[in-house]
Prior knowledge:
5 helices
Amino acid sequence: MRRGYHTLWTIGPEHREDPAYKAAGRRMDFALAVYERRSALGMSSAELTERAGLTVEEIERIEESGVDPTLELIESLAEALHSGALIDPRATPEFRFESRAA
């Protein structure tokens, strides 16, 4: 008996090396990092838009994995989230924001 439609999906190694697959993973890691840090600070989306100088639509697209993280965007969000940005392609997730050392 099957438990669900997607319980047996596997991603072959040839797909894991595809640039589009890797880019989608970076967008998802970035989205998760922004959301988790914003939530940890108790910050609303509206407050983050004000601090980062972005629109509500831009923050929504970021948190929905719809934006490729650029250096300028990472710096802007790190500042707005009172954080440092850590990127490690060997880790999962590859990207995260961490509070700055006092």
